[in-house]
């Protein structure tokens, strides 16, 4: 199975993701906006067991997601880069596309929480768009 390497900005944290992501998502929720100081988070979703730290120990910030379950944000204590968020509700990591080698070549498969997007956010065309989450994904 193919492995994709990733790292934070300063290189203190290094990790790998095995196989293809199960999803690639632009999330426009207010928490992601604050996290990125932007209009969205671009996360590639990998099952929990397919993401592994290779170097360093991330700082973890835990918050409650809309499901009531934990979202565990992993970031570098040196440079502050968030490399991933573990989504307890779905048992997967939403890995920062920008931290992955070749992550800039991946396109999102869906746009979520668009009803909560900043007024100036731009949505890519021809990508499924959901006000909150698609049916069956919880919330």
Automatic annotation (TrEMBL):
InterPro entries: CENP-V/GFA, Mss4-like_sf. The keyword Secreted does not apply. It comes from the Bacteria. It comes from Methylomonas fluvii. It holds the Pfam family GFA. Keywords: Lyase, Metal-binding, Zinc. Belongs to the Gfa family. Residues 4-121 form the CENP-V/GFA domain. This is GFA family protein.
């Amino acid at each position: 199975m193919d492995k994709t390497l990733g790292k934070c900005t300063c290189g203190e944290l290094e990790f790998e993701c095995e196989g293809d992501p199960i999803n690639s998502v632009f999330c426009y929720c207010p928490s992601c906006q604050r996290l990125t100081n932007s209009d969205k988070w671009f996360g590639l979703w990998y099952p929990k067991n397919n993401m592994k730290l290779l170097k360093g120990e991330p700082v973890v910030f835990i918050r409650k997601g809309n499901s009531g379950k934990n979202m565990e944000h992993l970031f570098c204590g040196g440079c502050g880069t968030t490399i991933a968020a573990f989504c307890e509700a779905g048992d997967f990591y939403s890995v920062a596309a920008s931290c992955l080698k070749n992550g800039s070549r991946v396109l999102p498969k869906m746009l979520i929480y668009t009803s909560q997007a900043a007024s100036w956010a731009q949505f890519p065309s021809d990508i499924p768009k959901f006000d909150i989450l698609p049916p069956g994904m919880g919330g």
